[in-house]
Amino acid sequence: MPLPARSLARGLAALVLVALVLPTAAAQSETPAPTPPEACLSLETFPVPAGDAPHDVAPAADGEGIWYTAQGAGALGLLDPATGAVETVPLGAGSAPHGVIVGPDGAAWVTDGGLNAIARVDPETREVATWPLVGENANLNTAVFDPAGVLWFTGQNGVVGRLDPAIQPSGTPLEPGAAPRGQGPYGIAVTPEGEVWFASLAGSYLGRVVPGEGGAFTLEAIDPPTPGQGTRRVWADSAGALWTSQWNAGQVGRYDPLTGAWAEWRLPGDAPQAYAVYVDERDDIWLSDFGANALVRFDPDSEAFVSLPLPDGGARVRQIHGRPGEVWGAESGVDKLVVVRTECG
């Protein structure tokens, strides 16, 4: 089968920093073969303060810094990769932040399970604003903005909710909706068409938010083919397909909302545990594998995996995010952030 054009465009030869790529007969001929994409991958880690237990990461709007949730310190961290310097912003007494994303306003938005609140950190002043949830602690997880500027969030104790910053000023109590099958809502994503989807770890399903009038919404559960797979996180590709990490099954899943078709692939190794999933600008799929202590890239064109072992044992990368040419993760087990650079040169 001819190699897809997307794969051929991935680059020229580069120094291999994370894996040895053995030369083939074609590589030794007069006309060298294109360098395999894995030859362009390099990995680097950055320490953060001891005890931070970084959970999620998000590239800052300035194109340089990397936000991370310091779950163990009740703070939001900002890494400068150029210098390795870290700045921390305390989020308040009792804080235990889980997720962080960058909003359309350039601010860092945090789902804080300790505060049971959504927090916003101003990128210039570092001022912290919060929106508390009503009722019992939701065990807040992750969030995403839709194209209309509405923030959607999940809580593992069985909720999905929304916040419209345009009409709900800080301090406004938020009342989320009950999720199908109770506990489990975890990762959340938005498609290029603006549809919001979420993953339920305990419920083992992919969920869809069905919008209604005046901010109302309902929630729909869609079951993957593998029972009890433990769908943990979800990310959309450029065509609107949903890619999921299946924790219990050690698989990556793909769901096409247009056709309703599913596909699933087991990660390499004896006992994979797929925690995080992220789709990069090339539509390559990245996963963190607790079982192999590795980051894993899946090429949908060739259906091939490349596994990148992490240098520190028990790294526990719980979330992956990125920007063009860089794939970032938070190593909660060793108080470090990790980046895989994907471009040659």
Describe this structure in words.
Mean pLDDT is 91; it is low at 1-29 and 31-35. 1% of the residues lie in helices and 45% in strands. The strands form seven sheets. A four-stranded antiparallel beta sheet has the order 1-28-27-26, with no helix packed on it. It is built from one helix and 28 strands. It folds into two domains: 1-40, no CATH class; 45-341, Methylamine Dehydrogenase, Chain H (7 Propeller). It has 345 residues and is an all-beta fold.
Strand proportion, as a percent range, falls in: 35-45%
The CATH class label of the largest domain is Mainly Beta
Query: Within the CATH hierarchy, at the fold level, what is the topology of the largest domain?
Result: Methylamine Dehydrogenase, Chain H
The CATH H-level homologous superfamily of the largest domain:
YVTN repeat-like/Quinoprotein amine dehydrogenase
CATH architecture of the largest domain: 7 Propeller
Radius of gyration: 20 Å
Order of helices and strands: HEEEEEEEEEEEEEEEEEEEEEEEEEEEE
Structural class label: mainly beta
How does the major sheet shape up?
4 strands, antiparallel
Could you give the distance between the termini? 28 Å
As for the number of domains, it is 2
User: Quaternary state, please?
Assistant: single chain
Low confidence ranges: 1-29, 31-35
Q: Count helical runs.
A: 1
Shape: globular
Average residue pLDDT: 91
